[in-house]
Design goal:
7-stranded parallel β-sheet, 23 strands, about 30% helix, alpha/beta, 4-stranded antiparallel β-sheet
């Protein structure tokens, strides 16, 4: 029988329409009586399965996603015109341990071909990084990379994946102490020490607060990492600095020549879990499938990291219920409470998070978005909570406090040690994250078709063909291991990911 809607939990008040429907269309509902559409409903949006009076709490995924702002009739389109955030939203998703034992298939791959560094850390890529201390040296760093990246990536030494500019928009105009300073330095140090950076050139202007000399003293790079540094002022200006940087990059790349990959266990993988440009399909296809892949990785001894605190709002109880210790749950809830205060102080609310694109794709409130987003974390226990850019605990599932904004969130994960990122999208994304590969997962067939050159895995067969979520999750798991072994993602083939290092900027800009 043709399926017209997706019902996510038996007692839900709404279901997701699989195809755009017109007034009078009869919609079959699994395990329920059919409903008649009372008007046009876009694909991926919600229809009411029963009459809902104004003030009624409305459920999807088995949890509250909003409150009816007026009477809603069975078969009516449910969206921003009649559904809003309820009061005290943070308490509406009760704690639920939700932990399920992952059955590990006997034939599950447990190794990949990684780059083993002398200190025992394992890389998935081998890049020369050009790290800036300040935005003032960003253009010089990018020009250095522009002169060298094609030669090194395509024609350069065997075993070297490329050269990447690690630039950012800060480094001066801030106090040399306090939260803003600590965030910036922790992020830059995390990138510099990342196993995917095989060699490093640090470029400063020469008079910035985040001085080259003090940053170099804090980097604490392993002895096996070749590193050089200079300032544009000491080099004699822009032209001479670019020339000097080019020579250094080429020399360092030559030192990395012949780097080989070795078969290693998946316990050396740290998988970053990210969604962006979400739509109604995100919580049905790509996110739960990625959750399966993550659970398989954790069961095999690996690690994963979930971020985007504003995008778990309302679903934090589900995560907290999976915490291995009370203090882990408390740490997560404390971070959500901080965000409530933070947004209130800036004259907004966490429900301001769903973007116009999210809403056009069928997501109405942050509660609905969060319930779909948390699906990326699977059902494994939550083992740790980390501040932005802090080292990720291994093995196990870590939550990192990050904003929802894509580049800022992923920057924190990479600085914390993620060496592969999976990014689900329903509206479409062209995100990359060098020096770490990003695997992009399409939630629906339309995005998979229109952005075929950007989407690595199409998860739409879950709703289009009835493919089990577990089967798609296994495909993602295998794809991640292929990428970790050197298979280039589509974003890498396109040269994307050189502009996405965006540290979370807090504190006063002076």
């Amino acid at each position: 029988m043709r399926q017209d809607v997706v019902l996510l939990a038996p007692r839900d008040d709404v279901a997701v329409v699989l195809r755009a429907c017109a007034e009078g269309d009869r919609l079959t509902v699994p395990g329920r009586d059919a409903v008649t559409a009372l008007g046009a409903i876009p694909r991926g949006h919600k229809t009411a399965l029963r009459d809902l009076p104004a003030g009624a709490l409305v459920r999807k995924y088995g949890h509250v996603i909003g409150v009816a702002t007026r009477d809603i009739r069975e078969g009516e389109h449910v969206h921003t015109h009649n559904l809003a955030m309820p009061e005290h939203a943070a308490t509406l998703s009760p704690g639920d341990d939700g932990v399920r034992q992952t059955e590990v298939p006997a034939d599950l791959r447990r190794t990949f071909d990684g780059i083993v560094r002398p200190d025992g850390s394992v890389a998935t890529r081998n890049h020369v990084g050009v790290l800036t201390t300040v935005n003032c040296s960003a253009t010089v760093a990018r020009r250095i990379v522009r002169r060298t990246e094609d030669d090194i990536a395509e024609l350069g030494p065997e075993g070297v994946d490329g050269v990447v500019a690690l630039t950012h928009g800060s480094g001066c105009g801030l106090a040399s102490e306090g939260e803003g300073w600590e965030l910036l330095r922790r992020t830059l140090v995390g990138y510099a020490r990342h196993p995917n950076i095989g060699a490093l050139v640090v470029v400063g202007l020469g008079c910035e607060v985040n001085a080259v000399s003090s940053l170099m003293a804090e980097l604490g790079l392993a002895e096996h990492v070749p590193v050089a540094s200079f300032t544009i002022q000491d080099a004699g200006g822009t032209v001479d600095a670019i020339d000097r940087g080019e020579k250094l990059v080429r020399d360092l790349a030559a030192q990395l020549a012949g780097t080989r990959r070795t078969e290693v266990g998946v316990e050396h993988l740290v998988l970053g879990l990210k969604c962006g440009g979400s739509d109604a399909w995100s919580g049905l296809t790509a996110n739960p499938a990625l959750g399966v892949a993550g659970d398989l990785l954790l069961a095999a001894g690996g690690a994963s990291v979930l971020g985007e605190t504003p995008e778990i709002y309302g679903a934090q109880g589900l995560l907290a219920g999976r915490a291995v210790r009370t203090e882990v749950a408390d740490a997560l809830l404390d971070r959500v409470a901080w965000w409530e205060r933070y947004t209130r102080e800036h004259g907004t609310t966490l429900d301001g998070n769903p973007s116009p694109g999210n809403k056009e794709g069928g997501i109405t409130t942050i509660l609905e978005k969060s319930l779909g987003a948390v699906a990326k974390s699977g059902h494994s226990p939550l083992t740790a909570v980390r501040d932005y850019a802090e080292p990720v605990q291994r093995p196990g599932l870590t939550f990192m406090d990050t904003p929802g904004y894509d580049p800022v969130s992923v920057t924190g994960m990479i600085a914390g040690g993620a060496n592969v990122v999976c990014f689900t999208t329903g509206r479409g994304s062209v995100f990359g994250s060098r020096p770490v590969p990003t695997v992009k997962l399409a939630t629906n067939a339309d995005v998979a078709r229109r952005l075929a050159g950007d989407m690595d895995v199409d998860c739409s067969p879950i709703v289009e063909e009835g493919t089990p979520v577990a089967e798609l999750g296994r495909r993602i798991y295998d794809h991640v291991l292929d990428v970790a072994s050197g298979r280039r993602t589509l974003s890498e083939q396109l040269g994307l990911g050189g502009e996405e290092l965006v540290p979370w900027q807090k504190g006063a800009v002076l």
